[in-house]
């Protein structure tokens, strides 16, 4: 069997309007094992607050992923490794949420901060994606583009209820209002999905500074057109900036190379991270 090959690239850009970049991105491909990840966090909450929240989230997930490939992990069965990867991701999200909440309590100037998060990791042919808010993950292969995440947002709820079309949502006055974020309350509810990858594919993670301007058809065209594929991140940033760049823009790509030919989803349930006993915060909505 042809070995799995993984490569990553990522970039974040301040855009054309904002005075600070409140996005954070982390990406890594292990040189010795078929393991790669991308983390994108889009902060909110005023000057410096959003940048602090997104950095906490990105740093926490980066540390979780970097610590994963221990000798114990490598000695486990594939099924056990998948469970351990999922547990590391879930634990990291909970840790990031608690650290943001604690920072808000100790630093009143950051009292409004929070962040979206989308994180993806590939181990062998196993892909896992977690998200909170409206930062997205997409998979592109020979079958086309598949959106792997559904926004936790007011307009997505309106679309689901039949009150808005996806086209109307693009120009809605509440399109930037999200219903979940890190740093708002305990517990934090992340949606976690996992797949087995059976053929070569590109995985894109991005903040809404990209998807505000580029619809799914445009995203698919960019991923299908540019080679080397990892350089697509630069085209995404440039396109969003040329369209106005009103928000910070982040894009990360994992290139997964495999010789076989299908994508099979085998799980996809939302998970709720359990709060510590002393936390009883019930805030539901987060607006950007």
From TrEMBL:
Domain of life: Bacteria
Gene3D superfamilies: PPM-type phosphatase domain
Pfam families: PP2C_2
Regions that span the bilayer: none
Domain PPM-type phosphatase residue range list: 7-256
NCBIfam families linked: Stp1_PP2C_phos
Protein name: Stp1/IreP family PP2C-type Ser/Thr phosphatase
């Amino acid at each position: 069997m042809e070995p799995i090959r993984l490569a990553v690239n990522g970039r974040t850009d301040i855009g054309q309007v904002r005075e600070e970049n409140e996005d954070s991105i982390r990406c890594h491909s292990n040189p010795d094992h078929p393991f790669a990840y991308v983390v994108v966090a889009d902060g909110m909450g005023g000057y410096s607050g959003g940048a602090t929240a997104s950095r906490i989230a990105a740093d926490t997930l980066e540390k979780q992923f970097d610590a994963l490939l221990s000798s114990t992990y490598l000695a486990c069965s594939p099924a056990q490794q998948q469970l351990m990867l999922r547990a590391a991701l879930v634990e990291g999200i909970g840790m990031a949420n608690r650290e943001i909440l604690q920072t808000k309590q100790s630093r009143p100037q950051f009292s409004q901060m929070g962040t979206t998060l989308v994180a993806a990791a590939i181990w062998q042919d196993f892909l896992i994606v977690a998200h909170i808010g409206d930062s997205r993950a997409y998979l592109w292969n020979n079958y086309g583009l598949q959106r792997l995440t559904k926004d936790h947002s007011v307009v997505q709820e309106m679309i689901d209820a039949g009150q808005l079309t996806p086209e109307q949502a693009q120009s809605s006055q509440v399109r930037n209002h999200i219903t979940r974020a890190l740093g708002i309350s305990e517990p934090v509810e992340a949606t976690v999905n996992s797949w087995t990858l059976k053929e070569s594919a590109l995985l894109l993670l991005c903040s809404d500074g990209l998807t505000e301007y580029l619809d799914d058809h445009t995203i698919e065209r960019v991923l299908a057109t540019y080679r080397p594929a990892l350089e697509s991140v630069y085209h995404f940033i440039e396109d969003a900036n040329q369209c106005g760049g009103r928000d910070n823009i982040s894009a990360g790509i994992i290139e997964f190379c495999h010789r076989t030919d299908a994508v099979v989803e085998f799980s996809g349930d939302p998970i709720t991270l359990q709060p510590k006993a002393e936390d009883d915060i019930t805030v539901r909505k987060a607006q950007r």
